[in-house]
Amino acid sequence: MTTITPNIIAEHGLTAEEYQRVLDILGRAPNLTELGIFSVMWSEHCSYKSSKKWLKTLPTSAPWVIQGPGENAGVIDIGDDLTAVFKMESHNHPSFIEPYQGAATGVGGILRDVFTMGARPVANLNALRFGAPDHPKTRHLISGVVAGIGGYGNCVGVPTVGGEVNFHPDYNGNILVNAMTVGIAPADRIFYSKASGVGNPVVYVGSKTGRDGIHGATMASAEFNADSEEKRPTVQVGDPFTEKLLIEACLELMATDVIVAIQDMGAAGLTSSSFEMASKGGLGVELTLDRVPMREEGMTPYELMLSESQERMLMVLEPGKEPVAEAIFRKWGLDFAVIGHLTDTGRMVLTWNGETVADLPIDPLAEAAPEYDRPWEPTPPAPVVDAADVPEVPWTEALPALMGSPDLASRRWIWEQYDHMVMGDTVQRPGGDAAVVRIHGSERGLAMTTDCTPRYVRADPVMGGRQAVAEAWRNLTAAGARPLAVTDNMNFGNPEKPLIMGQFVGACQGLAEACRALDFPVVSGNVSLYNETEGRAIPPTPTIGGVGVIDDLDRMATVTFKAPGEAIVVIGERPDTRESGWLGQSLYLRELCGREEGAPPPVDLEHERHVGDVVRGLIQAGRVSACHDVSDGGLLVAVAEMALAGDMGAALTLAAPSAAALFGEDQGRYVVTVPAEGVTGLLAELGTLARHIGDTGGTGPDAAITLGGAEVALSDLRAAHEGWLPGVMGA
Amino acid sequence: MKARVHVTLKPGVLDPQGKAIANALHSLGFDGVKEARQGKVIDLDLDDTDAEAARARVDDMCRQLLANTVIETYRIEVDP
Amino acid sequence: MKARVHVTLKPGVLDPQGKAIANALHSLGFDGVKEARQGKVIDLDLDDTDAEAARARVDDMCRQLLANTVIETYRIEVDP
Amino acid sequence: MKSAVIVFPGSNCDRDVAVSLEQTTGRPPVMHWHADPALPEDLDLVVVPGGFSYGDYLRCGAMAAHAAAMTGVRKAAERGVAVLGICNGFQVLCETGLLPGALMRNRDLRFLCKDVHLRVETTDTLFTGHYAPGQVIRIPIAHHDGNYVADLATQCALEDEDRVVFRYCDPAGKVTEDANPNGSLDNIAGILSEERTVLGLMPHPERLADPRLGGTDGRPLFASLLEALS
Ligand SMILES: Nc1ncnc2c1ncn2[C@@H]1O[C@H](COP(=O)(O)OP(=O)(O)O)[C@@H](O)[C@H]1O
Ligand SMILES: [Mg+2]
After folding, report:
1. Chain D closest CA to C49's CA: distance in Å?
2. Does Magnesium show up as a keyword for this record (chains B, C) (predicted)?
């Protein structure tokens, strides 16, 4: 038997202190299998040891929240006895090492989190961050990640309807791949992971276990360095066809009454799934590892417990119901094995060849999981950029340049590789503010979006955290949806550094403030720390995935200009900033002046809420014909995006506008179009909140945006906008 | 000069293709198939005239493009 | 007993993968590549003990499943 | 009109096409499990839907071609029952030999999901009677392997016998290289069997047969079937 040396302990990522705690709990030295179990259960990834304290400060409840954080996914009531079940999860490190498989298995994992709860997945989204477009690795990473997300989602048959992509050199060595799944479940058929019933069978279903990704969970919790290459064999390969079978088989079984509890095997596989189920139920579990379906010969208990083979689930069944379940899994061609049962001992006991190979107390191990209150420092405030110090680039140059810049250019090349229409309910395809999927068989819809502006978060974590939530809320609102709840994916650097920890703390504060002010609680999420390479941290990226409901699809809004001669109205400008405009951290400043600096635009949550409620009211009353929120790139970019979507020009009547007025990124604003007959009434009603800035018009080859006697042809804007990404990708 | 590159999954790496092929062969009644694994072959037609130089160049191509060395291994045959 | 099946596109059938590989190699600076073609290799682990019987069976598998003879040809190696 | 949709374990457009069939014909199709060789009696139409039948790891449709249900489909086709293969269904029908040729990886090797324009090349079919000859329609594609290939004899037969039903074209109806999304031979998007009762096409008519989804150009295909087969 392997003796546990300090070296082995270190390899398992446990500190001396943590190891001492292991000794205290067991009253003896652990064997290797036991040490492996401790190491994954106490890894950052599984234990949230650095983040727990701050996650607890997020608002998580509302009358419509059925299940907040703490389960595989969050659950909200969406009316008609239905629920939306959703979560987002990162697969950053695996995707950097093997982009195709890393991203593919990321999608597989988040799908399982959602259908584990009894929901049929109806949409996938993905939030991606890559390095500089001209970095030698970027192209390979984009093509692999996108193909992997598509390869998995397309095969499984869940439409990939939305997401976001940013580029920044600080992601060169550490890309972000955050995948989100939204599912729909009947309100009376939600499944949880809490085990119950001493003696009940514990059942393994899905793919066989191989030596995949052993120590993946530990890898996701350690900073990257040059010898990460060595860790390569831990990459897992996804099998989307098996996932599809697993979805169908699980949902078929869930329609019967035989499942007591169910949990997917994600990070730390069999260990964390069995552990969590028993722990939540206050029970013990005994597993006969010989019965685990194995893909390879000569596997050890250690490997079986730590393997991260994909497409597997663990269930507790009602006693005697094994044959019902087995018949369904066999019908779908999947492995099925009763591998153990629940006990009242509160211990996890593993046997192998008739011998006990691990015997651990469950509660003490879970309760003693380390929880750190890491030292943190706030980010020093950045100075406000004075627009007077920023050069004026003529808008006719600035607009095409921005529309073809990395963070604003069209993502068509990406979403055309995703089947975004399968299931026949995609009523708003990628390219708008929020994707909208019809609730099957109804005239209602789910709207969803993912958002975060990392450059804002880096400059001011609190404000950036607020902004991420506000932008998600705004995107849902712009589609005419009632925003209901969010999932978050907190991507940060090494939390052992006080400034990084300070970013995390600040972002949590901003998130919490915005979620509270907007009645937009957090129902699930994921934390990914140690996103650093050679000591260089990624920009802090708390990605927000928002979900809302549209009660009548006839009253959904899109960004597309609909008809010529309609008034273009901006809603939400504050009287004091109407003519000025916030350039700090704007894309104008970065892309046209080469300056990435300043304080980000402030987010006034009260104003945000008021404006959003007004705009949603107008959409729901059928008074606007198109709606788009103003975000990256500012007002003129928003108008240009609407024009491109509708293939129709715009004649703007702003008088001698400054770059700050056109491209400033002030928050809480929307652009809408209003049929001519409704303009006067609307302006009178909204007062200073609304401003008529021009009219739609011009189609075909002559379509253009005109302003102050100058014009830019839509065809030129389109070429810049659509050409950039295919250009980078060489296709 | 012709070169042939065989790219196969490393042992232990899940091969969904191979698994599916084995299943399909079983359902067609070919019971005696214990395992199937799928790989790629890439045939290259090269300008080179020197076999050793060609092999070195193809090795470079494999590492840079033809094989995904994270999960695959490769083998080169040069046919003078 | 092990058998290996090589499945390649018939000559004359355009090979999009091969073409893409050749292009990618060129853009990586490997100029000397005149052509690239990509094929599949399927490695089978068989119960058979008789090489001839194995070959016949694998030939059957190829015709029924492993190759699409509209566009592909195949070659079998049996490794006793 | 009585129809059945074959359901392979990896089918994922089975429900979508069932919805379209029910909307146009007023009658839901029978969902027929792949492992069952005996198709329902008195069928007028069998649909082999889109998706990834068995994961499609070896070649798209290769394994599905051997499914028990396909024996039933073959027999039905021999009896003259109409067969419609959409996307993966088209691939399956080629692999079974019910349609000639093969579908290879897209020219650019990428999966492609987008609306394309098609020119209706013949209305002398059970499937296209409700279109006008030469009509240009907008229908989505979503595939990785839609690059149709066939030998010269097949190509000539398809042309001579008026068996090319849809071709990729530009919005004005011109059949151009630029309008060809996947490298298909002669921009072919859909073809008929010799008896004209089996249609395979890569685009998904069921995805634009509902105004809510942004278009209805797919609907006449189902309406044509309803009229021809009722
Ligand atoms: N940033 C966060 N905000 C809110 N909840 C979170 C966050 N991170 C994790 N959670 C919640 O903690 C629980 C455990 O998360 P995780 O380990 O990622 O789930 P899983 O084991 O299903 O992968 C989940 O319920 C998740 O929703
Ligand atoms: Mg989970």
Report:
1. 26
2. no
The answer to whether the beta carbons of residues C6 and C62 sit under 8 Å apart is no
Asked if residue D15 lies in contact with residue D22, where contact means CB atoms within 8 angstroms, the answer is no
Residue indicated by tokens 């970065």: A590
Q: Which fold has domain A387-482+545-729?
A: Phosphoribosyl-aminoimidazole Synthetase; Chain A, domain 2 (3.90.650)
For residue A272, which atom of ligand 1 is closest to its CA? 21
Q: Kindly list the residues from chain A whose CB atom is less than 8 angstroms away from the CB atom of residue B23.
A: 333
φ, ψ dihedrals at A649, nearest 5°: -80, 180
Q: What are phi and psi of B23, to 5 degrees?
A: -60, -45
- Report the pLDDT averaged over residues D188-202: 98
Residues A543 and C34: their CA atoms lie apart, in Å, by 47
- Residue with the two structure tokens 């490298």: D183
Q: Which one-letter amino acid corresponds to residue A48?
A: Y
CA distance A81 to A88: 24
Q: How confident is the model at residue A29 (pLDDT cuts 50, 70, 90)?
A: very high
Give the helix ranges, DSSP H, for C1-80.
16-27, 51-61
Residue D87 catalytic?
Answer: yes
Nearest to C39 among B25, B41, B61 (CB): B41
Residue ranges covered by each domain of chain C: 2-79
Q: Say whether C66 and D58 touch across the interface (CB within 8 A).
A: yes
Is pTM, for the whole model, over 0.90?
Answer: yes
* Residue A138 host element (H or E): helix A138-156
- Whether D94 is catalytic is no
- What digits encode the pLDDT tens for the residues A426-451? 999 999 999 999 999 999 999 999 99
Reported as a single tens digit per residue, the pLDDT across A524-566 is: 999 999 999 989 999 999 999 999 999 999 999 999 999 999 9
* Packing angle, helices D14-25 and D219-229, rounded to 10: 60
Bridge partners for A482 per DSSP = A549
- For the domain made up of C2-79, the CATH class stated in words is alpha beta
Compute the Cα dihedral for D41, D42, D48, D49 and give only its sign. negative
The residues spanned by each domain of chain A are 387-482+545-729
DSSP letter for each residue of A687-717? GGGEEEEEEEEEEGGG-EEEETTEEEEHHHH
Q: Is A174 in the pocket of ligand 1 (CB under 6 A)?
A: no
Mean per-residue pLDDT for A391-395? Answer: 96
3-state secondary structure of A305: helix
**SS3 of residue A597 by DSSP:** coil
A610 is catalytic: no
C-beta of residue D25 within 8 angstroms of C-beta of residue D5: no
Orientation of helix A714-729 relative to helix A634-646, angle to 10°: 90
Complete domains list, chain D, with CATH: 3-229 (3.40.50.880)
The A residues from 229 to 248 touching D (CB cutoff 8 Å) are 239-242, 244-245, 248
Contact D106 C16 (CB under 8 A): yes
